[in-house]
Write a structure and sequence with these properties.
CATH class of the largest domain: Alpha Beta
Shape: flat
Helix content: 25-40%
Radius of gyration: 31 Å
Strand content: 25-35%
Mean pLDDT: 83
CATH superfamily of the largest domain: P-loop containing nucleotide triphosphate hydrolases
Number of domains: 4
Number of strands: 28
Largest sheet: 8 strands, antiparallel
Structural class: alpha/beta
Oligomer: single chain
CATH topology of the largest domain: Rossmann fold
CATH architecture of the largest domain: 3-Layer(aba) Sandwich
Low-confidence stretches: 75-86, 430-437
Number of helices: 17
Length: 632
């Protein structure tokens, strides 16, 4: 009978829903105490645990003679000494309806990355606010991250109401402010006044706040509806492991991230885009006719097709995006700042790919959600960035599927996790689909043959400097000198390019980035043709120039900094643009209302206010000769 009771208990426990949630907020808002109170008042603490915490409270506690329930969660010695949470702590409990996994997240700004880690798998967030201190910067930061990570259900626990005399007016003021914060106001949010120390409105109502007639924290946790949160109905099976024990078996193992899969279903492997059908679905407990999201399975296919770890299995008619360029929100987690143009490793699903952050569209201020221009992201900052990978890969937007829309950024030198990202959109230019069916087509005339034909080693002479510095004048004169010497070249001028190829781009920072990216790709093609390419562009951002440098081989990018001072450029003002910029009729004008980042180590530097055009040309030609770019 006892065995039957136990089996029945296990069946009922297995059938319970699972809810993952986090507690977060500013430092000392009472997150660990709230969790301790939940565990204590739902009778989830064993007697020996309670005895140990009672003993530890005399040494480490911060609640006087009362048992410090925060010690149930804060287990590290440093946490107990300082009375804070440092690392994410996970605790488990259940009620008659649900099982819960709690992630207690730290409140300090320096541990924001730990909070983001804990939130990445959560269905709900409990954000605590100290009633005596009100909403803090970290409260807003955590709410912003909750929104970015797609958590749709939020409980705001206005804690320590006992310290403000259970004042309803204080609660209403904080409630109103919280509902105006992004991540709270636009979510399924409830605000509850609580005293975690005394237990009011955590599991039971208590006597302190008779004016509050809403549900307690545990009642909200037990009743919140997360059944509609499953984001994607389309099949997504990231391949984690290729199981090949012998020549007779090849299976593809992974956890089903979204959708369902059944024996006989058609399958598309991406990014290779090869087709097959499901032959078997295998699990530890045996074969299945069908599998649902969250199940760990091994799939065998009807056809022998090449599939590797990191590939994705999907339905042929509802495939993910395949490309190498996308825009994503990034939470930066490294002490070293994010630098556009620097190479990182990006881990999407189970695949590692090299790539760069091509540009930072903007940084998000967590206080008011405003957007600001940024040349880098520092520790704990959040920004919208454009990512460019070196290879094609499959991905979804984070809003549609967390598993295939999230990634981490890894520092290639230290191998430390540097950032976490959520894909916002496919960023292929003009909506072009970077499909794996597009291949680079080799030509019969090789790059080396073109070089030998023209008696020169091609390179890109990238003239950069302020408007009016003399870039176009000097570049024109250099091209004329090369022509007279019998060399083959072509000049790409900024104004000329914007008449045609880039006529659709504006002069915003995003427009400037795309302008330079396109020019870099065109210059690379001309380089392959064996030409010496001259470009005359302001190109104000180092990251953009670095991006073009990384496109070509070593020594093939020659940065020519025309360093004519601003006052001289403004005195010249050949097109009358500085006057208009000073009057405010031209916005985002480099040197006046938009920054210019001077090269740090250009191959050539010339100041046209001190040198004649002929002297500037001579310097460029002598550099090309000294570096073997021109043959006699």
């Amino acid at each position: 009978m006892a065995a039957e009771d136990l089996a029945d208990f296990l069946r009922r426990h297995e059938a319970k829903e699972l809810l993952r949630f986090i507690t977060c907020g500013s430092v000392d808002d009472g997150k660990s105490t709230l969790i301790g109170r939940l565990l204590h008042d739902t009778q989830q603490i064993l007697e020996d645990q309670l005895a140990a915490v009672t003993s530890d409270s005399r040494k480490w506690g911060t609640t006087g003679e009362a048992v410090d329930l925060a010690l149930l969660v804060d287990g590290l010695q440093a946490e107990r000494e300082q009375g804070i949470t440092i690392d994410v702590a996970y605790r488990y409990f259940d009620t008659a309806r649900r099982k819960f996994i709690i992630a207690d997240c730290p409140g300090h700004e320096q541990y924001t990355r730990n909070m983001a880690t804990g939130a990445s798998t959560a269905d709900l967030a409990v954000i605590l606010v100290d009633a005596a201190r009100g909403v803090q910067v970290q409260t807003r930061r955590h709410a912003c991250i909750v929104a970015l990570l797609g958590i749709r259900h939020v409980i705001v626990a206005v804690n320590k109401m006992d310290l403000v005399g259970y004042d309803e007016a204080v609660f209403e003021r904080i409630r109103s402010e919280c509902l105006g914060i992004r991540g709270i106001g636009d979510a399924d949010a409830r605000v509850v006044p609580v005293s975690a120390l005394r237990g009011d409105n955590v599991v039971t109502g208590g006597d302190g706040m008779p004016w509050y007639r809403g549900p307690t924290i545990i009642e909200l946790l037990d009743s919140v509806d997360v059944s509609h949160d499953q984001q994607l109905a389309d099949l997504r099976l990231p391949v984690q492991y290729v199981n090949r024990p012998d020549a007779s078996f090849r299976g593809f193992a992974g956890t089903l991230a979204a959708g369902e899969i059944a024996v006989g279903d058609p399958i598309l492997a991406v990014p290779s885009r090869r087709l097959s059908r499901v032959r078997e679905i295998l699990t530890f407990d045996g074969n299945l006719p069908r599998a649902a999201p969250g199940m760990a399975i091994t799939v065998t296919l009807e056809d022998e097709i090449d599939i590797s770890r990191g590939d994705l299995l999907a339905h042929p008619d509802r495939a993910p995006s395949v490309g190498r360029v996308f825009d994503a929100h990034l939470i930066w987690m490294s002490d070293a700042p994010l630098l556009p143009g620097k190479q990182y490793e990006f881990k999407l699903s189970h695949r590692y790919l090299r790539g760069t952050v091509e540009s930072i569209h903007h940084r998000i201020d967590v206080n008011d959600q405003s957007e600001h221009l940024a040349s880098e992201l520092r520790l704990n900052e959040v920004g919208l960035c454009r990512i460019v990978l070196t290879e094609q890969t499959a991905f979804d937007t984070y809003a549609s599927c967390r598993a295939t829309g999230a990634f981490i950024v890894v520092d290639r030198l230290s191998h430390a996790t540097a950032g976490a990202g959520m894909i916002l959109r496919n960023a292929a230019p003009h909506g072009a689909h970077h499909d794996v069916s597009v291949f680079w087509q080799p030509t019969r005339v090789s790059h080396e043959q073109r070089i030998n034909q023209k008696a020169q080693h091609p390179c890109i002479l990238w003239f950069t400097g302020l408007s009016g510095a003399g870039k176009s004048t000097i570049a024109n004169a250099v091209e004329q000198a090369l022509y007279l010497r019998g060399h083959h070249s072509y000049l790409l001028d900024g104004d000329n390019i914007r008449h045609g190829l880039n006529r659709d781009l504006d002069f915003s920072d995003a427009g400037r980035v795309e302008n330079i990216r396109r020019i870099g790709e065109v210059a690379k093609l001309f380089l392959d043709a064996g030409l010496i390419v001259l470009t005359a562009f302001i190109s104000p951002f180092r990251s953009d120039r670095r991006l073009v440098r990384d496109l070509v081989g070593s020594g093939e990018f020659v940065e020519v900094f025309v360093s004519t001072p601003l006052d001289e450029c403004e005195r010249r003002d050949p097109k009358g643009l500085y006057v208009k910029a000073r009057e405010g009729t031209i916005r985002n004008f480099t040197g006046i209302s938009s920054p210019y980042e001077a090269p740090e180590a250009p191959e050539i530097e010339i100041d046209s206010s001190k040198l004649s055009v002929a002297e500037c040309v001579d310097r460029v030609i002598r550099y090309l000769e000294a570096n073997g770019r021109l043959r006699n």
